[in-house]
Amino acid sequence: MAEEAASAPAGTEAPPPGKMTMVAGVDDSDHSFYALQWALRHFFPPGQPQQYRLVVVTAKPSAASAVGLAGPGAADVLPYVEADLKKTALRVIDKAKALCAQVSDAVFEAVEGDARNVLCEAVERHHAEMLVVGSHGYGAIKRAVLGSVSDYCAHHAHCTVMIVKKPKQHKH
Amino acid sequence: MAEEAASAPAADAGTEAPPPGKMTMVAGVDDSDHSFYALQWALQHFFPPAPQPQQYRLVVVTAKPSAASAVGLAGPGAADVLPYVEADLKKTALRVIDKAKSLCALVSDAVFEAVEGDARNVLCEAVERHHAEMLVVGSHGYGAIKRAVLGSVSDYCAHHAHCTVMIVKKPKQHQH
Q1: In terms of DSSP bridges, do strands B56-64 and B110-116 run parallel, antiparallel, or are they unpaired?
Q2: Does the predicted interface ipTM exceed a cut of 0.85?
């Protein structure tokens, strides 16, 4: 890694060559915002030169997939579901932007699709070296039924995957 | 996190007292390229060479399987083989530790441990013992079937470790 001149760390305009890209996956859950805050605290310390470029990605499921099992009359509901999903995604992005206020190099994306694919594609697109996701802490059965985005990403993302867990109890 | 004074770079090299709340990172290694790649990746990203201050305390852990578990399915005559297997496993674990020590030469605050037991439990216990905030492991990149049969240490740790788990993958091809 290039040694940075320690005498001019604050407000460095030109990112050092080889600045790493980190994708952070967020959804509308406490676990994922905890993961984002954890990443910010450890990798984007205020006042120090920022070594990473942050890309915050949220996946917006398509309305059709969200009401998939509804049956007749589903078509009528679609526009409302679509509007609600859009609103949720925008709210997630706004909350993420507020959390990342001190990050100089941050990009925010809301992408339509299943979270698993959206995150892995975002990693490819941004040539990210790291993907940060939260973990709902589901047990084995819930995982089998609901699926686990963090598991999928741990297996399929082409970069280092960091799974941040919200502690269930105060450890120390 | 305490804001570090960016105006005093001269005092960074060879800082004796770790800043309060220095994070502990456990790195699991075994005798495979994937896990040394993961260790080197972690060193490259989290332990930049001086004069930058080291923000982490590194604990490198390797698991030495017990000889009995390694020859478990051998059948009669296994008992005779045990001492040789035990010696070989010990040698492997020491070799892994030595290789890790040479890789981590730049790290000021590093501890190396070889613990007997299954890798899954050893790593999760090490996290508990050192109150680590992060666990770094490599990934063999097994497919679904191999995982089901052989088990995956990184999967187990991702589910059961009580801290952030970082799974580092050795790229199969040169990405960019």
Answers
A1: parallel
A2: no
Distance between CA atoms of residues A73 and A69, nearest Å: 11
Nearest to A154 among B52, B158, B163 (CB): B158
Decide if A159 and B176 are in contact by the 8 Å CB cutoff.
no
In chain B, domain spans: 31-67+87-168
Is the CB of A97 inside 8 Å of chain B's CB atoms? no
Contact B154 A151 (CB under 8 A): no
Q: B31-67+87-168 maps to which CATH number?
A: 3.40.50.620
Mean pLDDT over residues B121-126, rounded?
92
Q: Is B32 on the interface with A (CB under 8 A)?
A: no
> pLDDT tens across A55-82, in order?
999 988 887 776 666 567 667 778 888 8
pLDDT recorded at residue B10: 39
Kindly determine whether residue B163 and residue A165, on different chains, have CB atoms separated by under 8 Å: yes
Mean predicted lDDT score pLDDT of chain A = 79
Are the C-beta atoms of A106 and A135 separated by less than 8 Å?
A: no
User: pLDDT category, B24, cuts 50, 70, 90?
Assistant: very high
Residue of chain A whose alpha carbon sits nearest to that of B56: A42
Distances (CA, A) of B152 to A70, A113, A159, B114, B143: 38, 29, 18, 20, 10
- Residue B144 pLDDT grade (very low, low, confident, very high; cuts 50, 70, 90): low
Phi-psi region of A89 (alpha: psi -120 to 50; beta: other; left: phi over 0): alpha
What is the band of B99 on the pLDDT scale with cuts at 50, 70, 90? Answer: very high
Q: How far apart are CA B120 and CA B125, in angstroms?
A: 9
Pick the residue from chain A with its C-alpha nearest to B11.
A6
Closest chain B CA to residue A156 = B141
Q: Any idea which fold A20-43+51-66+75-164 has?
A: Rossmann fold (3.40.50)
